[in-house]
Amino acid sequence: MTEQELLSHIFAELKKVAPECDPVELAPDENIREALDIDSFSFLRVLVGLNERTGVDIPESDYGKLSTLAAMTRYLMARLP
Amino acid sequence: MGEFRMPSLGADMETGKLVEWLVVPGQRVKRGDIVALVETQKGLFEIEVFEDGIMGEPLVAAGQTVPVGTLLARIEAGTAKAVFTEVRTEPTVEKTTEPSPVSKPQETIPAQPTISSERLSCSPSARRLALELGVDLATVQGTGPRGAIQRSDIEAAAQAKTITSPQATAAPAESAGDTPETRMRQAIAAAVSRSNREIPHYYLATEIDLSHPLQWLEEENRQRSMRERILPVVLLLKATAKALRDVPELNGFWLNDRLQVQPDIHVGFAIALRTGGLISPAIHHVDRLSLGELMQAMADLIERTRSGRLRGSEVTDATVSVTNLGDRGIKTVFGIIYPPQVALIGFGKISERPWAENGMLGVRRCVTATLAADHRATDGHQGALFLEALNRHLQQPEAL
């Protein structure tokens, strides 16, 4: 999976929980939850969706390491099966 | 034979639009089946029937907006057995022992001149209750044998009437140009205005050390797949329900000048909609669900709330409400009670705070829990007992 493909997966999952937003406009280091006004339940859904799309298991203690687009991409790219 | 009427879906609803029939005349339905979609100010809801039978001809066509209580269709009894399941335990031949000189003259007044006598299958005792409570028998759905109106039906109607009394719903008339967002605000405005006007709130707050329950939850979540992991708010919900079992006076309705404690604990969970506004649908029997089941129930409810697939009953039968504003960095919530409920429990953000205990200062993960309660129904003492019980249950997460 290329970084571009991963990004499109991330955008697709964000779009599911925040349909009226355009995640493409997120800055790489912007806090996703704050920028898109996503609650903890919806954010968990995004992570579960990404887990299913990428096969990367994200321990709960790592949830904080995926708070921006840049961090999320880095974290997942490093652990792709 | 039963009747399917436009239900009241909240403190603020006067009319509802029948958007779509999901069954056809002649179709067999059973209790709990979804038969229609109804649109209110708060969105679209799936409406279920409360009895078994065969769907009659629709009396209201799709697309029509009608007042709450309007007969939408009759439900013919399917089989004798189906009818029998609907017969509720009623104090049938209640001895009219009440020496009621006051109500005597009233009895001679025909309950409602507008209704034909054949619809008035109603015991004298139920009829008297209807007079006492000012319930229009024509609007009452009988659940007794052959649709007879029973005392329990009158009580239910009185409750619905309280909820939708015109005085309480000062919402401006719906105008054609209103957006769904505007109508949502109007619905919320009507409910909270009534709450602030009628309910003498009192507020209590306490800090709860969540270090131990959160550690326990992290350990528990390590053994769960991502999909099955439990959010901290689930612990808060379950502990709330268990504390309500200890202090049941906070779980109920203020109706007809008295507190009516409810046996079941259905927690209305405030869910913010992305388009603005909020809905507090009920998670049923929270005290009986395991943490995993509760997480699933909450997830299901949030998904369906946000996609507009709530059932009508879910927005009407909450016995208490919980609002969790922790995600927004809020420390303390001072809530407004949703009438006719008598309590609202609020949770703020879980954060690290200095914590003094046994002469030592440490850092703990804490949450501020608040109670907004109806002072007509309870006093501060009971409220304090509730918050104490909430803390006690949270400190024993393995027992939740």
Automatic annotation (TrEMBL), chain A:
**Pfam families from the UniProt entry:** PP-binding
User: Carrier domain spans which residues?
Assistant: 1-80
Domain of life according to the entry: Bacteria
Name-wise, this protein is: Phosphopantetheine-binding protein
- Taxonomy of the source species: Bacteria, Pseudomonadati, Thermodesulfobacteriota, Desulfobulbia, Desulfobulbales
